């Protein structure tokens, strides 16, 4: 029997967090829910607790990367077999968590992380709508990551992803700072684990604001591009697929 | 090098050396971060006092004007020090993040341990056992 954990990073999401947690409890039974309150200044933690989630309160804002990593640390220490990341703003549909888990079960051992992609839904019109510049950024990252990992990556910025035990241990030890989604795909590849994508539909966000606004998007693009190229040049563990020593990341202390 | 400039640069670099030393003595500055400062101040002081050495260095690297070489050396130290601080900040940021995560995990474990035998603890536990797949 597997232990299952849903990690919900939230920063000032008091308006949406309760319905997100309720959605998880109703549509993803069997999944424990931990809300990582990333130093919110509003009632996020209180609403999450009231909705029945376990809450990890960061003493101050760490950014999405640090918050999600705390979730993975929690998953590692709690002995969870699978962990799924679900955004606190209600964009992700808890009913689709089973699809992710099914994919990991079917491809057990071959796929360690599965991402829900907005862009695999067939016709793009019913896919996700966002600004042209954001789509261009997603295309660029997707193109680079597809080349590097030799697998098609259509939605590198999706935060809706599920990890198995090995990926949980990897991310608990080492997770990218700031805006981690793109780099996490690269990390999984660098550690000789495999990632895959399945189609999902995402809702419009129900509250709060994106961590990436217009003025920060240039910084974001540049930072992630730098991280990708540095990541490619960085020394990485060389192990065979299936080797338990694949996770060799060290904490930066 | 002109005498007046020499006096000023000796005073400034000597003052810097003494000031950094004083900060260490009062434990306002850690020794390991002071070493680079003291080294920089000592080199600048030596070059100011020993004007002949500075002249020889400047002709060797093709700088016409002795004091300009002194500025170049000082600027070089500034760059090295700034990079050093960036490294220190990066390390501290990382340690800070890890500390915050540990604090959050420990805090949660603590609130669990001291009472709050809250009612939704039980169903959540059994829920995962009953309905978990596989």
SS-derived structural category of chain B: mainly alpha
Helical amount among residues of chain B, as a percent range?
Answer: over 70%
Number of helical segments with 4 or more residues of chain B: 5
Residue stretches of chain A low in confidence (pLDDT < 50, at least 5 long) are: 238-253
Broad shape of chain B: elongated
In percent terms, what proportion of residues of chain B is strand?
under 5%
Radius of gyration of chain B: 29 Å
Helix/strand-derived category of chain A reads alpha/beta
Spans of chain B of at least 5 consecutive residues whose pLDDT stays below 50 are 117-134
State the major sheet of chain A: 7 strands, mixed
Largest sheet of chain B: none
Shape of chain A: globular
Helix content of chain A: 40-55%
- Structural Rg of chain A: 17 Å
Distance between the termini of chain A: 35 Å
SSE succession of chain B: HHHHH
Cα(first) to Cα(last) distance of chain B is 83 Å
Give keywords.
heterodimer; A: 253 residues; alpha/beta; seven-stranded mixed β-sheet; 8 helices; 7 strands; disordered C terminus; B: 134 residues; mainly alpha; 5 helices; 84% helix; elongated
Give me a quick take on this structure.
The complex is a heterodimer of chains A (253) and B (134). Chain A has 253 residues and is α/β, with parallel strands linked by helices. Helices cover 40% and strands 14% of the residues of chain A.
């Amino acid at each position: 029997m597997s232990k299952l954990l849903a990690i919900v990073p939230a920063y000032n999401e008091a308006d949406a967090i309760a319905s997100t947690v309720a959605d998880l409890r109703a549509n993803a039974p069997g999944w424990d829910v931990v809300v990582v309150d990333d130093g919110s200044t509003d009632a996020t933690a209180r609403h999450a607790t009231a909705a029945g989630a376990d809450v990890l309160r960061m003493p101050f804002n760490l950014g999405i990367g640090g918050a999600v990593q705390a979730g993975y640390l929690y998953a590692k220490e709690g002995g969870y077999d699978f962990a799924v990341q679900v955004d606190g703003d209600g964009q992700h549909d808890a009913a689709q968590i089973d699809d992710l888990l099914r994919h990991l079960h079917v491809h057990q051992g071959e796929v360690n992380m599965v991402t829900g992609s907005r862009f695999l839904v067939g016709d793009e019109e019913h896919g996700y709508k966002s600004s042209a510049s954001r789509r261009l950024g997603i295309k660029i990252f997707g193109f680079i990551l597809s080349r590097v990992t030799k697998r098609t990556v259509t939605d590198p910025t999706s935060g809706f992803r599920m990890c198995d035990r090995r990926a949980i241990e990897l991310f608990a030890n080492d997770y990218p700072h700031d805006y981690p989604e793109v780099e996490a795909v690269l990390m999984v590849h660098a550690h000789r684990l495999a990632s895959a994508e399945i189609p999902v539909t995402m809702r419009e966000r129900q509250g709060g604001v994106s961590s990436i606004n217009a003025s920060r998007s240039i910084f974001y693009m540049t930072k992630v591009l730098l991280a990708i190229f540095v990541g490619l040049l960085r020394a990485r563990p060389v192990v065979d697929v299936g080797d338990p020593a694949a996770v060799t990341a060290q904490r930066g202390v | 090098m002109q005498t007046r400039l020499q006096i000023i640069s000796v005073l400034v670099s000597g003052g810097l050396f003494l000031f950094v030393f004083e900060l260490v003595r009062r434990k306002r500055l850690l020794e390991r971060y002071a070493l680079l400062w003291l080294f920089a101040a000592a080199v600048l002081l030596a070059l100011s006092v020993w004007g002949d050495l500075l002249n020889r260095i400047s002709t060797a690297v093709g700088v016409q004007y002795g004091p300009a070489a002194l500025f170049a050396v000082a600027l070089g130290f500034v760059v090295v020090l700034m990079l050093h601080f960036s490294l220190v900040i990066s390390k501290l940021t990382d340690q800070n993040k890890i500390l915050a995560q540990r604090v959050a995990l420990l805090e949660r474990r603590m609130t669990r341990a001291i009472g709050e035998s809250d009612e939704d603890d039980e169903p959540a536990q059994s829920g995962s056992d009953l309905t978990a797949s596989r």
